[in-house]
């Protein structure tokens, strides 16, 4: 199997924890991590590249623009084969940019979204190759249940 470059993107807190739980699946591939807290670098495998970006929400329009610009630089520099994200805003933008470059794209909606798919998940779902939910009762409407990251 050819080694792939995987760009793994998540905002902080639970999004980052869930992404970290997927690290074993990335073994044997070139790994690049993007998140919002510099301290999280200690959680990444040895040899993996690591970037921090601005943490922004939909209510912080200037912050979202800055975040998008940071991710443009990272995605175009790294040119990943696969982009995967557990959310939220950083993942949304990274997936959209990765798709523009022909990368395979995977969104995993946060386990915290018990009742419905997240806003970021709904928005990105039409622009990615695979959308996964971590709750079986949310399977459908473009989202597939394959298990969870608990």
Helix-strand blueprint:
Layout: E1 5-10, H1 14-20, E2 30-35, E3 49-52, H2 61-78, E4 82-87, H3 89-100, E5 104-108, H4 119-124, E6 130-133, E7 144-145
Helix pairs in contact: 2-3
Q: How would you describe the overall organization of this protein?
A:
With 150 residues, the chain is α/β, with parallel strands linked by helices. It has a single domain, classed as 3-Layer(aba) Sandwich (Rossmann fold), CATH 3.40.50. Helix content is 29%, strand content 22%. It contains 4 helices and 7 strands. It has helices spanning 14-20, 61-78, 89-100, 119-124, and strands spanning 5-10, 30-35, 49-52, 82-87, 104-108, 130-133, 144-145. A 7-stranded parallel sheet has the order 3-2-1-4-5-6-7. α2 packs across α3 (89-100). 37% of the residues are buried.
Q: Can you tell me the CATH class? A: Alpha Beta
Unreliable segments (pLDDT under 50, ≥5 consecutive)?
A: none
* Lateral strand order in the biggest sheet: 3-2-1-4-5-6-7
Structural class: alpha/beta
Radius of gyration: 14 Å
- From the N-terminal CA to the C-terminal CA, the straight-line distance is 28 Å
| Helix percent band | 25-40%
Output the number of helix runs: 4
CATH topology name, in short, is Rossmann fold
Give the helices and strands as they follow along the chain.
EHEEHEHEHEE
Q: How many E strands?
A: 7
Total domain count = 1
Work out the strand percent: 15-25%
């Amino acid at each position: 199997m050819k080694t792939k470059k995987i760009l793994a993107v998540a905002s902080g807190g639970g999004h980052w924890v869930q992404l970290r739980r997927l690290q074993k699946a990335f073994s044997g591939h070139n790994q690049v991590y993007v998140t919002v807290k510099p301290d999280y670098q200690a959680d990444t495998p040895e040899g993996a590249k690591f970037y921090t970006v601005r943490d922004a929400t939909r209510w912080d329009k200037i912050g979202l623009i800055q975040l998008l610009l940071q991710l443009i630089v990272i995605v175009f520099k790294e040119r990943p084969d696969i982009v995967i994200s557990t959310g939220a805003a950083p993942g949304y933008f990274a997936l959209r940019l990765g798709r523009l470059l022909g990368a395979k794209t995977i969104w995993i909606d946060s386990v915290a979204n018990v009742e419905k798919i997240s806003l970021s998940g709904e928005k990105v779902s039409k622009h990615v190759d695979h959308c996964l939910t971590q709750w079986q009762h949310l399977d459908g409407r473009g989202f597939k249940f394959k298990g969870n990251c608990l």
